[in-house]
Amino acid sequence: MASIGPTVLQLIPSATRVSARVHPLVIFNVCDCYVRRPDHAERVIGTLLGSILPDGTVDIRNCYAVPHNESLDQVALDIDYHHNMLSSHQKVNPKEAIVGWFSTGFEVTGSSALIHEFYSREASNPVHLTVDTEFKNGETTIKAFVAINLSLGDQHLAAQFQEVPLDLRMVEAEKVGFDVLKPTNVDKLPNDIEGMEALMGRLLALIDDVYKYVDDVVEDRVARDSKIGRFISDTIASLPKLSPHAFNKLVNDSLQFLNLQDQLLLLYLSSITSTQLSVAEKLNTAAQIL
Amino acid sequence: MANTATRSFLQVAATEEATTPLRVVQIEGLVILKIIKHCKEFSPALVTGQLLGLDVGSVLEVTNCFPFPIREEDEEIEAEGANYQLEMMRCLREVNVDNNTVGWYQSTLFGSFQTVELIETFMNYQENIRRCVCIIYDPSRSNQGVLALKALKLSDSFMELYRSNNFTGEKLREKNLSWVDIFEEIPIKVSNSALVSAFMTELEADTPVTQCDYDRLQLSTSPFLERNVEFLIECMDDLSMEQQKFQFYYRNLSRQQAQQQAWLQKRRAENMARKNAGEEPLPEEDPSNPIFKPIPEPSRLDSFLITNQIANYCNQINGVAGQSFSRLYLMKALHEN
Predict the structure, then answer these.
(1) What is the interface size between A and B, counted as CB pairs within 8 Å?
(2) Contact A92/B38, CB-based, under 8 Å?
(3) What ipTM was predicted for this assembly?
(4) Whole-angstrom Cα distance, residue B182 to residue B167?
(5) Which end of chain B, N or C, is less surrounded by CB atoms within 10 Å?
(6) Per-residue pLDDT reduced to its tens digit, B289-321
(7) Which residues of chain B form beta strands (DSSP E)?
(8) Which residue on chain B is closest to A289 by alpha carbon?
(9) pLDDT, tens digit, 9 for 90 and up, residues A5-44
């Protein structure tokens, strides 16, 4: 590649090694757009919104589909639509800017380069996200690419799509609970007490698992693994060692942050308030002296 | 069954009139994520947005939504807001999203959403669409690992009363309407497309513990409870103000009645005297006299709403305290082991 003279074949790499982070909403939205695509369309494409974090990670937080037409060698993107939608989104959240574009399908295709070129004008170094909605190789494939320009001197020759690491951030989805987001149909949202109950069940199962593992190791049924052992001992050690007296004080003393008595009092107060309300209501409707 | 196929569109439209009551709100996972994203990004500011979907029999399907920009008081901007809404609907229709308004969503802080504004917005929506729903999301509660989503609608009897703007005690008794009956909570169902479900199953293998669980095990609930109690106290003050208004009204009313009685007795005595003197009796009613002017009864709407609010806070305190008890006992058990 090294050569003599003024013309050098250059691979201009992106400024920093980018990685991308995708929020679950984007995946949900892409799937929804794909389900609702027009009859003739084979894939859907759209704009990705988000921001670039200080460490160079592209944070993809939102997206919207853009109607397009694809024939053999050309792509027509509805640019007006794209701009309208962009300005609408920015009215709501001015902090979200274009960071790239998505397309459904397994791989980067020839026309992708054209679309990518368009997005390069909208944002510097856009990210191209592909979501395989057809499960071509039997599993989910979500990939992110950036384009690297290949140029000879001043002449632009081609763009090479290079895959970048992708972090599927599921924390938000975790907050909602996968019990709600995974199945196709959920009849009822769990309320707080039910959630607590499920949690206790899971916690108990986990503790049982640990017990079983430890027993197994002690009785030489399972090969010992010092890493796991260390994890377990760390976990147990993270429990503060308190004398029963100090612990009781912690729980019962109202000056501490865990105050059993305060909470009992509050519980009592709120119950008495609601009782009062129902009594007042009965009195109001029954005994109006008119 | 055979004649169902031959029914004309008009007939169908006519039978639709006899509506089945709204039983379930079916929300897509996408909508939940969108609402949460919007509400959380702007929390603690309160935000709203529009819900789009379909109305199918007793089920209201919410299949998409879009956020509203933060509202400003300026008139010009308000007009822009309407434009924004139209523009967004048009754009979404182009990518085949159901563009049928079915209601709106809004965020709330510690469940303080029962306001006159909510009712007004609801009435506005109700004028345009037959069936609409309001989804309330509480970001503050979600930090504790609860999915605090609620679907509400106003009850029919309350809407009727609200239209006539008649909240006197008598009317309320006639309708048998109490504060519990203002809002109806509708059960929420969540649906995901098969595609989404496949993706989620693949991407997130069954992890035994999730973020949600960690949040639930958070031991410190004091700030939340404190705020709740603070709000509760404020509401109590408001309620006692309302009660004072009523007491004032009743006191005025009884004073007026006493005056009326006195006047009537005087008039009767006078009439008796006139009769004895052989003169025409004076009428027993005198509309021009100020003591016969009816005193307007204050509206009970406010006190109803406040009562609702108080009940809500009480429930929340109960729920949170209950949860933290189990957490405390869990900790105790852990410690004893």
Answers:
(1) 240
(2) yes
(3) 0.76
(4) 12
(5) N
(6) 766 777 777 777 788 888 888 888 888 888 878
(7) 24-28, 48-56, 59-67, 101-107, 133-137, 149-154, 183-186, 188-191
(8) B250
(9) 455 555 555 445 578 888 888 888 888 888 888 877 788 8
